[in-house]
Amino acid sequence: MFILSLTYTAPLSEVNAHIEPHLAWVAGGYDSGTFLASGRKEPRTGGSFWRWESAASSRLWSRPTPSFSPG
User: Fold this and answer.
1) Is 5 helix (H, G, I), strand (E, B) or coil?
2) Are 48 and 55 in contact, with CB atoms under 8 Å apart?
3) Domain for residue 26, yes or no?
């Protein structure tokens, strides 16, 4: 199992501008059986995803999210 822990690097106002496409992407992850669990961090500084697969597969998988930008 892999847990991907993400931290926002943009202001929350910019994150919120992309939240709807991101939530649709998250729903697709559950629909396809990719996600075991996910959630926001509190305080709202990022989020995390739980899934089964290799680290390399998890890195490739995380790139299609509308809110992901490698940095």
Assistant:
1) strand
2) no
3) yes
Alpha helices, DSSP H, located in the chain: 12-17, 19-31, 55-62
Q: What is the tally of structural domains in the chain?
A: 1
Between 1 and 54, the more confident residue is 1
- Does residue 68 sit within a domain? no
Range of 57's domain?
Answer: 2-62
56 pLDDT band, cuts 50/70/90, is low
Mean pLDDT of all residues belonging to the chain: 81
By the 8 A CB rule, do 16 and 25 touch? Answer: no
Residue 7 in domain = yes
DSSP E strand stretches across the chain: 2-7, 37-40, 46-51
